[in-house]
Design a protein that fits this description.
The protein has 604 residues and is α+β, with helices and mostly antiparallel strands. It is 29% helix and 23% strand. It has 18 helices and 28 strands. The strands form 7 sheets. It has an 8-stranded mixed sheet with strand order 7-6-5-8-3-2-9-10. Helix 10 (267-275) runs parallel beside helix 11 and helix 12 crosses helix 16 (542-554). The longest helix is centred in the middle third of the chain and has 19 residues, at 316-334. The structure holds adenosine-5'-diphosphate and magnesium ion. Magnesium ion (MG) is lined by residues 35, 38-39, 99, 104. Adenosine-5'-diphosphate is lined by residues 9, 35, 39-40, 43, 64, 66-69, 77, 82-85, 99-106, 148.
Length: 604
Amino acid sequence: MEPQPTPPILPLPAEVVDRIAAGEVIERPASVVRELLENALDAGACAIRVEVREGGLRLIRVADDGHGIAGDELALACQPHTTSKVRTLRDLDAIATLGFRGEALASIAAAAEMELTSATDESGLARSLMLTPGGEVAITAGSRPRGTTVAVRELFQSLPARRAMFARTGVETAKIFATLRAYALIYPAVRFTFVVDGNLLAQTPGHDLAGAVGALYGADAAREMASLGDRTSEGFTLSGAVGSRAFTFSARQHIVLAINRRPVHHRALLAAAEAGYRPLLRKGRHPLLVAQLRLSPERVDANIHPAKAEVLVRDEQRLAAALRDAVADVLGHTASAPAASRHVAIGAPPAAQPLTLRFPPARRRRGLHLAERRGRYGDLWRAPADAPVEARDLPDLALAQFDETLILARSSASDLFLVDQHRAHERVLYERLRAQYAIGSAATAIVGSPTEGAARMADRSSGVTAPAQLLLEPLLIELTPRQTQLLTPRLSELAALGIECQPFGGSTFLVRSLPQVPGAAPTAPADTRTLLIEAAEDVEDWRDHMAIALACRSAVRRGQLLSAAEQQTLLIELREVSAPVVCPHGSPLLVRLSRDWLVHTFAW
Ligand code: ADP
Ligand code: MG
């Protein structure tokens, strides 16, 4: 394909300037990196090298092999509101580039010493422009292959208070790295190199997403990621990859969302992506996930935030639901017993192919995120078998109970299984409750309210009744004001779920009935408080949290003797659930010792 001639850089007309979200573009060193990365990507770069010193305060240098800036346009590019990307108001309504305000270079030049070197062809001839915040300009001839290098030195030197805010250079370097990672995951075909204080910290192969993930998070993470495929729905497509539930972080920054290839921070979409993991993640743990949404540019407004970090999307709810369902769908097929089986396929054939890693594993990073690298269970246990557990492989014959905690069982393929009785039962009950609560269904209307003293309550979605047990003595529970505020609007829904609970003045509630979990002993009144606290959580999926709490409290305990028939029933029930290898809290519930492994170990 013939390269398109690069459009000239021109000042934006006043009416466009007026409509641009005003505000601070350069808040911190990482903002400089973001703007320079975006410029390099807009210039069609295939390779981008980012170098920082002292958290970016001393130096940020970004070099690309993009189309370059003509020598006579260098000075203009650094003026406020000059750009080659946007011309008219109409362009603002359908922004196709990452940059659109023509402000970044000017803002950087106002806050630091900036040196811009660029060449537009392979003649080797380049032009360099030196700018200081004082406004001195010097243009010199230089040499470089096609592309642009921007060096930013002594950021915020004229703003000592601001500069002091970034004294902890490690924190800033981590922020910069997070920024770079996001772009590297969204643009995996571009080769990103990151050099910190003279040391190479990361380099992506510039090939595909698996390669980028491998380079940034290690080969394990890449191997365990599952592709979202290319999902097209009315008006948008969704692609990317979903990290394994066993590979989690304490921070949410490893969920990368892009809309039309622009990384965005969008609360509702982030929450939706995580909701897709329910109930596979432990509380406080966050996954690695890359989701790219593409929709027609008219449906996105990127011009609402000075740092372009937030965008406005139309049909936000539909997008969020699609994202949540896609993640759940992929995980449903790949829910893995941590560490034991890498790609566990359960039930129907996977809709998405696991990503294949085509590049050698990345170098290990030291310092920045080493502590975050592993999910909690990674090292918890080592199971001998590494093969997938499929639904048909699950045990169907209970052999014995061990220590009143585990059921020893065998499958039709003669594999030996250890099944944690509590976790297995928890899983079974949880899935029943989910079905009963219709969690995840679109229905939110409450069908009637419970009649006085009724022992069976109306289910909110289907009119089916959720069984409840009346308490002989109503219980008084005291919550915090914040919990009260959250719980109050949920009371009628709680009633439909079997918890009849009335306000009793201030932040006190009177509980008259508790849910009766099908197939379990009655809910103990002692657990009422826990249930209400889950129901009053400041999360959208409080119903799910409640179902988890209820399942946990109603499941058979460790230390409980089970008859042979009870053991057998539990195994059969487990075969029916959708994710039979993890409990609702996300912990493994069974271990398989495969026949092959036994044969090998004992040399039979
Ligand atoms: P914007 O990206 O919003 O247009 P900037 O101030 O970031 O504004 O850049 C101004 C102009 O300079 C851009 O429109 C582009 O034409 C040119 N430019 C900046 N960086 C690069 C680069 N790395 N490669 C090629 N052109 C660049
Ligand atoms: Mg820009």
